[in-house]
Amino acid sequence: MLNATMIVASLLASGAGAAPPADATGTVSLTVYSSADPSGFDPRQFLEQARAGYGAMAGVPGFGLVRETRAMDMPNGVGQLAFTDVAAFIDPTTVSFNDLTEPGTAVLDQRFEFDLVSSEKLLERYVDRPISAMVDMQGGPLKVSGTLLAARGGVLVIQRDGGIDMVPQASSAITLSELPGGLRTRPTLLWNVNSPKGGRHQVRMGYQTGGLTWRSDYNITLNAANTKADMSAWVTLLNVCGRSFEKASLKLIAGDVQRVQPMNYGRGGAPMMAKAMMADSSEAGGFQEKTFGEYHLYTLPRPIDLPESSSEQVALFPSVSSIPVEKLLVYEGAAMAWGGGGQPIDGREFGQVGNTKVDIYVRLVNDKASNLGMPLPAGKMRVFQRDEADGSLEFIGEDVIKHTPRDEKVLIRLGSSFDVVGERTQSDFKIDRARRTITESFKIEIRNRKDTPVTVLVREPLYRWSNWQITTSSLPFEKINSGTAQFTVDAAPNAVQTLTYTVQYTW
Fold first, then answer.
1. How far is CA 161 from the centre of its chain?
2. In angstroms, rounded to a whole number, what is the distance separating the alpha carbons of residues 53 and 114?
């Protein structure tokens, strides 16, 4: 079994010491992990933050592993090597380095420079240096030259011969003589290396970075009889890591991968504990899947472009048709009750307030017999149904599923029925403390206002104490767990069906 540390280390170091392929120069491989909550994660909020210049990486629920091969000019002996255009949210402590041309090359130390050029930083670095500003005045442009004393609050303070001018920055064209030291146009890793041989070398490096994540979405279309469904699935990839990836090989890891989560995030941004999700294999453009320890590794069999500050949709697997489904109506009329701290819940009032809504579910089985049988990553399932009058698809509900292995059931809650109503009434309540018993009776009505018959599953939580038995019931029941009984109620069109039962608790 591989743990998370072994997986990350093996992915970063994959191919170390191997001879580079003929077209290795410039190749990028990307593995993306995600801890996104499908119910609330929206990539658009992070894109808006990135485009507004705010810290987009903060709070991005995921991270990525980047592996890249480049041809670089290696010094002979000790020298410096600059690896430019790395992700702005790189974790420098995760960097791996392999000289594929000369394995004896060693990195002595490294430094990550991410202080990128901007107008504010340029002016900060030019304090006490000569500067020229062409100021837009009512009478025409006015050139002001001198030594920059300060640049704050949108005002340039320039000392010239004979006085000090305060110039509005917004209405000035500023000229600087050179780029100050210490500023970079792109995030850069600087290595001090010692190589036995200089010249053009193939260098492979890898690192982890924040600002990358993904989520899965499913679209399900039910037929008119609610017996079959078609399904399509998408992966949405979010990239706000501070660099673009062109023609990258993309992988996804499926499973709950544990990572150490620090209390605070620095510039490098160690990501949150990851829940990497998965995709299915296909010859028609989907992801190719294989087992990877206790996880699943999914590879997109074609290169992909992921521009900075963008989201990209990729087919998770080809559309699947004619999936057998079952529509369920479920009534859970009892209000939530909490345990009595080691004692039975003996208050009469706990049985008197209930719910009237009957919930709608769609259930399917993720197996080959249902045309599925593929691992389904956690995600949001949106359900549609076609209006036969005009052929349009109408949205009828959505739910979130957890990671679902093959051969498991999928239950999707759509909402509450409009025309089927439930009512739960406590008809009797007795407590005999001497005999340590509670006897409680209920009447449950299922009112069907539809023109077609319906079947409703009535679930009753028997929560007052762990030792219980149903002594009388007007309909058969099934004990589905230690604290729940389920009744099947068939209601005719435009009719009311009544269920009554009595339960006795002893302690």
1. 59
2. 15
SS3 261: coil
Q: How far apart, in whole angstroms, are the C-alpha atoms of residue 474 and residue 280?
A: 47
Closest to 63 (Cα-Cα) out of 11, 1, 25, 2: 11
| One domain for residues 355 and 496 | yes
Mean pLDDT within 107-117: 78
Do 360 and 288 sit in the same domain of this protein?
no
Do 127 and 85 share a domain, yes or no?
no
Residue 208: other Cβ atoms inside 10 A? 28
Please spell the DSSP secondary structure of 7-62, one letter per residue.
HHHHHHHTTTTSPPPTT-TT-EEEEEEE---TTT--HHHHHHHHHTTS-TTTT-SE
Mean pLDDT of 415-421: 97
Q: Is the per-residue pLDDT at 353 higher than 50? A: yes
CB 424 within 8 A of CB 413: no
User: What is the average pLDDT across 457-472?
Assistant: 95
Name which residue leads in pLDDT, 203 or 277: 203
Please report the DSSP string for 139-188 in residue order.
TEEEEEEEEEEEEETTEEEEEETTEEEEEEGGGEEEE-SSPPTT-BSS-E
Quickly state the pLDDT bin for 39 (edges 50, 70, 90): confident
Flag whether 188 is in a domain.
Answer: no
Q: Would residue 197 count as lying in a domain?
A: no
Are the beta carbons of 131 and 143 closer than 8 angstroms? no
Same-domain status, 419 and 479: yes
56 pLDDT above the threshold of 80: no
> Same domain for 339 and 462?
yes
Question: Which residues, in sequence order, are bridge partners of residue 215?
Answer: 236
pLDDT digits (tens, 9 = 90+) for 309-319: 899 999 888 89
Phi, psi dihedral angles at 192 (to 5 degrees): -95, 115
pLDDT of residue 261: 54
- C-alpha 458 chain-centroid distance: 35
Per the structure, how many domains does the chain have?
Answer: 3
The rounded distance, in Å, linking the Cα atoms of 90 and 186 is: 13
- C-beta of residue 271 within 8 angstroms of C-beta of residue 63: yes
Amino acid at residue number 506: T
Which domain does 340 fall in, by range? 332-506
Q: What type of residue is 483? A: G
Helix/strand/coil (H/E/C) assignment for every residue in 455-478: EEEEEEECCCCCCEEEEEECCCEE
Who has greater pLDDT, 93 or 280? 93
The reply to whether 458 falls in a domain is yes
- Identify which has the larger pLDDT, 155 or 12: 155
449 and 421 Cβ atoms separated by less than 8 Å:
yes
180-207 per-position pLDDT tens digit: 665 566 788 889 999 999 999 999 999 9
Per the listing, tokens 């699935």 go with 233
Instruction: Tell me the mean pLDDT in the region 376-402.
Output: 92
Q: Provide the token pair at 101.
A: 């041309």
